[in-house]
């Protein structure tokens, strides 16, 4: 057991991650970076996963695809992708192609960096992105994509102080973040990623990096190391309290003093009905998206009891403020899922926030469940996202309240085979 000085205990277990592989990140990144194409080198299993998880329609022309590896390819370490790349350039005209790894070719030790380099041109670079589920949680693949883009961010000259928001959000949230910063007198240098690869923000020693997703520790560390950029160390902008602290801390980095407590109270007032329903509820987070720390902190602010907050990976420096805010909460890194099952059975929480893969078994056993992946896809950031964030937690509780009383014996009778079958 490790501890963060003066705050909370962080328990480290040793289980594998029960979440999607990094290929799932393609679902939001190809929509965000509108002049990109995401090419996965994988197997039929990868194709099946993407086709189902991302809801790809047969008549659509999404800007992602899979170069399928057949059995005959398993003895070779030099996949031939020239024709595939030529077809992508001809049909989609991308400014950049991201080449994503998957489990099988990584086990085969395919030289992805060399492959990407050989396929690149000055007009359309091909960038390698490690996204295998063997190593990365699925949200961390966004971190890998952003790191691949770092060399293409222009160098901002010294003396030009601005903020660059780090993390993929939809256009509505991006507009809100930009306008809020400008209202506070903070110059906005852009977003990483931007909507287009050819419009990446300039980043230099006077750039303040403001991470808005809690799974991007590596890219901000790299930019701090390579460009000398300053990194905002604050709460993530989820919920009224997190949003207030985020903006006050960011303003302070620009020598601007601002008190947003009235704005925070107005946000709490807007979700008072949701707060009343969540207050006192016992919530259990299994590890999935790496968004668990700020989400649990929001629930603690609401007045809910967080029975356990577990996450696949926790960076003590990057997540320090969230860990401080979770003082008194059981926080677990890489939790043992079998131990969690026993604890859930014993503690009987009011709500379990868990992955798509474990949600249905919990529901089948009478628990109220929220799919954790929904938080990665919904606009929940800053002031404009407060209502949506609260509703994501409230909706499964309201849905259960509308259902007839759960009778386990009737349910079992309906699904268990009768004697003699």
UniProtKB/TrEMBL annotation:
The keyword Secreted does not apply. Its EC number is 1.3.7.7. Pathway: Porphyrin-containing compound metabolism; bacteriochlorophyll biosynthesis (light-independent). It catalyses: chlorophyllide a + oxidized 2[4Fe-4S]-[ferredoxin] + 2 ADP + 2 phosphate = protochlorophyllide a + reduced 2[4Fe-4S]-[ferredoxin] + 2 ATP + 2 H2O. Its cofactor is [4Fe-4S] cluster. GO terms for biological process: light-independent bacteriochlorophyll biosynthetic process; photosynthesis, dark reaction. Binds 1 [4Fe-4S] cluster per heterodimer. The cluster is bound at the heterodimer interface by residues from both subunits. It is an enzyme of class 1 (oxidoreductase). Keywords: 4Fe-4S, ATP-binding, Bacteriochlorophyll biosynthesis, Chlorophyll biosynthesis, Iron, Iron-sulfur, Metal-binding, Nucleotide-binding, Oxidoreductase, Photosynthesis. [4Fe-4S] cluster binds at residues 21, 46, 103. The keyword Iron applies. Residues 21-396 form the Nitrogenase/oxidoreductase component domain. One of its GO terms (molecular function) is ATP binding. Pfam families: Oxidored_nitro. Component of the dark-operative protochlorophyllide reductase (DPOR) that uses Mg-ATP and reduced ferredoxin to reduce ring D of protochlorophyllide (Pchlide) to form chlorophyllide a (Chlide). This reaction is light-independent. The NB-protein (BchN-BchB) is the catalytic component of the complex. Belongs to the BchN/ChlN family. Protochlorophyllide reductase is composed of three subunits; BchL, BchN and BchB. Forms a heterotetramer of two BchB and two BchN subunits. This is Light-independent protochlorophyllide reductase subunit N.
């Amino acid at each position: 057991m490790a501890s963060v000085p003066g705050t909370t205990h962080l328990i480290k277990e040793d289980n594998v991650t029960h979440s999607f592989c990094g290929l799932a990140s393609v679902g939001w990144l190809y929509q965000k970076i509108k002049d990109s194409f995401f090419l996965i080198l994988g197997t039929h299993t990868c194709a099946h996963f993407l086709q189902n998880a991302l809801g790809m329609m047969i008549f659509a022309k999404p800007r992602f695809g899979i170069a399928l590896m057949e059995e005959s390819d398993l003895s070779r370490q030099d996949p031939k992708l020239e024709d595939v790349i030529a077809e992508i350039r001809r049909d989609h005209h991308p400014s950049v192609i991201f080449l994503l790894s998957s489990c099988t070719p990584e086990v085969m030790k395919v030289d992805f960096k060399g492959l990407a380099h050989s396929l690149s041109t000055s007009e359309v670079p091909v960038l390698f992105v490690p996204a295998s589920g063997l190593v990365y949680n699925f949200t961390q693949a966004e971190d890998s994509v952003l790191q691949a883009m770092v060399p293409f961010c222009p160098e901002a000259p010294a003396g030009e102080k601005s903020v660059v928001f780090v993390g993929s959000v939809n256009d509505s949230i991006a507009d809100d973040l930009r306008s809020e910063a400008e209202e506070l007198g903070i110059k906005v240098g852009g977003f990483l990623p931007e909507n287009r690869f050819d419009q990446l923000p300039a980043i230099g020693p006077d750039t303040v990096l403001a991470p808005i997703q809690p799974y991007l520790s590596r890219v901000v560390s790299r930019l701090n190391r390579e460009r000398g950029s300053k990194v905002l160390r604050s709460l993530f902008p989820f919920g009224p309290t997190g949003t207030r602290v985020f903006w006050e801390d960011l303003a302070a980095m620009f020598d601007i003093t601002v008190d947003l407590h009235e704005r925070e109270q107005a946000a709490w007032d807007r979700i008072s009905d949701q707060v009343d329903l969540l207050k006192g509820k016992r919530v259990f987070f299994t590890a999935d998206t790496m968004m668990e720390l700020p989400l649990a902190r929001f629930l603690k602010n609401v007045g809910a009891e967080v029975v356990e907050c577990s996450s696949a990976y926790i960076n003590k420096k990057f997540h320090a403020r969230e860990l401080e805010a979770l003082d008194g909460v059981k926080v677990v890194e890489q939790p043992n899922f079998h131990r969690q099952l026993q604890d859930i059975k014993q503690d009987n929480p009011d709500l379990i926030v868990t992955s798509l893969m474990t949600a249905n078994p919990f529901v089948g056993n009478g628990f109220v469940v929220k799919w954790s992946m929904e938080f990665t896809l919904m606009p929940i950031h800053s002031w404009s996202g407060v209502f949506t964030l609260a509703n994501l937690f409230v909706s499964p509780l309201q849905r259960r309240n509308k259902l007839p009383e759960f009778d386990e014996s009737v349910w079992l009778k309906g699904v268990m085979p009768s004697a003699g079958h």
